[in-house]
Amino acid sequence: MNIVKVDLKRAILSRNMIASIILGLVSILAGMLMEPLKSALRLYLSNAPDLTYAAKLHLIGNSLNKATLWNFGNYFYTVLMPLICCIPYTVSYLSDKKSGFNKTLIIRSNYKNYIYSRIITTFISGFLSIFIISMIYIAIINLVDSGEEFRSIFYNNTFLSSLNKNNFNLFAFVYSIITSFMGGTYAIMGLAISSLVDNTLVALVSPFTIYYLGAYIGNRIKIINPLIVNHFYTYEGINLYHIFIQLAILFVLSITVFLYKTYWGNSYE
After folding, report:
1. 215, part of any domain
2. Would you say 192 and 255 are in contact if contact means Cβ atoms under 8 Å apart?
3. Within a domain: residue 46?
4. So where does this one cross the membrane (predicted)?
5. Predicted model pTM
6. Looking at the 3D structure of the chain, how many domains does it have?
7. DSSP per-residue codes, 20-61
8. HSE (CB half, 13 Å, CA atoms) of 34?
């Protein structure tokens, strides 16, 4: 459909896409700079009798290996993922609703294509924002990498635990694909919310809020929570099935709400 091509170009080349990528990279660099410095300072000032000056320097240097840098970079990046993926295109429908553009399409009998295009483009833009950031992220840590002697930052008996120890770059790539699908799903969630509210800020931050509210509730009552998607390497007993089911449920619910509000319900706002 031509409208999908137009919307994809509009989303990918937009200032919002650039802003989301910049926000993601800044959050990564903040973690990669602040956390190693804190760790290095603690090591350097340590009074442990068995920790010689040479051993301190060795440990500080080892904190610059790619696995440790990746872990440090995730400190803030994973926190902001549900927001980053929504920035490029999630509120496009709400903007069109406020401007009356969607009503023009109703008159032209293109509303069905318009709605489907919004779904496709929003998912792809959310996917791409996380994927592009993650690919740049992997490139950066490989440029800085100080060696293969990784710190013990990963958990045993977790999903892809053997891969992250034996082929870290492949692990980071697979992680990027999984979190990119998370980005697309949460962008669709934001799109659904934008069909229910008239406030752009609320529509933009709601997926972020729902993610952490779900994480809080999940931790309190000990059920699987949203954190298993982009923190799966810290949870024992989690596999791809659990991640897929959670994202699939969120995706289907969000699509259902959006279609009911904008198309099936004949509201045509």
Report:
1. yes
2. yes
3. no
4. 12-34, 75-94, 115-140, 170-193, 200-218, 238-260
5. 0.86
6. 1
7. HHHHHHHHHHHHHHHHHHHHHHHHHT---TT--HHHHHHHHH
8. 10
